[in-house]
Amino acid sequence: MRVAAAVAALLGLVAPARPENKPAEKVKIRPTYEQGRRLRYQLKLSGTTAWAPSIEGVTWGRMKTDFTFVLATKTLREEGTHKGCCTFHLLGEHLRSLGEGPNGAFGVDTTRERTRIKVRDHWQVSVENESPLLKKMTMTFGPLGGFRFGTKLAPLAVYMLPHVDHRFWALLTVAPYRKVSPGDTWGDEFDLPVPGSKEKPLKLRGTWRAVGWQAYRRRKVLALTLQGELTIKKNTRVMLENGDLLRVSTGTCRATGKAMWDVERGVLCSATAEQKILIKAQTLKGAPRALRSESSSSLKLLAAKTPKKGR
Question: Is residue 11 part of a domain?
């Protein structure tokens, strides 16, 4: 019997004892800033916002933007008040942005060599001698990251009007404060402004979730999702940009996003976000008003280059 048992074990007929289930190892996500590192990204934005019927003096519009650029490390701050911050040179490669609003249609299609401007339905070569992408531009990130649109990007501000609220975008692309592992959830609060309104932004409670390890361009990355929803209370007051006062009948807001972090390299690889606001309201005289605002955005890492140590 002993011989038979030994043979069975060798043939795998006797199942080995199973190890106890251990909790997934928690990891600390932090952006890694290095001298000489170059990160090439593609950013896409699209959105539509409109009050119906159209209201004079209230912002509305449609836009679509596709922007490819490189972030090249300029300054690392390793001491003092701004310890852990990094300023990048922003080197634009190609920008194509189309929009339509109260002042008509507008578009730009520019590389570092040539710029075309669209006014109404006609494209024409810009009379300016210099592409806006040749202007010196920088972006600064803190120890937790947080991708922002407006830091030293004045030359592009006239062409890029991101409808996805920058506060939600920054929250989506910032690293978690604590270590996380797949399955973890935590909460956060963020502001979401009502387009065309002068009121304080709506406050949404968002839920983070560490989805798990996935593959991105042959790299192992950790995926995180963020979702926030809000039902606007009936009779909530909304003051429009032109001074009209509305009272909400029904209203919903929803914002969702997903980020992918290359934890080993300390690089944000991808971020996608969608937002949708639907409101039905009435003026104080009972005239109906409705808002529909939808937007989406995506940021994708195309390449990451870091010089080898010793060079």
Answer: no
The verdict on residue 191 lying in a domain is yes
Give me the pLDDT at residue 207, please.
Answer: 94
In a domain, 292, yes or no: yes
Element (H, E) at 9: helix 2-10
Q: What is the pLDDT of residues 96-142, one digit of tens each?
A: 999 888 777 888 999 999 888 888 777 887 766 678 899 999 999 99
Q: CB–CB of 102/132 below 8 Å?
A: no
Distance CA 235, CA 233 (A): 6
How far lies 56's CA from each of 99, 183, 254, in Å? 19, 48, 27
What is the CATH classification number for the domain harbouring 213? 2.30.230
Domain for residue 9, yes or no? no
CA distances (Å), 255 to each of 150, 217, 221, 275, in order?
21, 26, 23, 4
As a whole number of Å, the end-to-end CA separation of the chain is: 67
* Phi, psi (degrees; rounded to nearest 5) at 162: -65, 120
Count how many domains the chain has. Answer: 1
Prediction pTM value: 0.85
- Which is more confidently placed, 194 or 7? 194
Closest CA to 145 of 164, 169, 163, 180: 169
Structural domain for 129, as ranges: 28-305
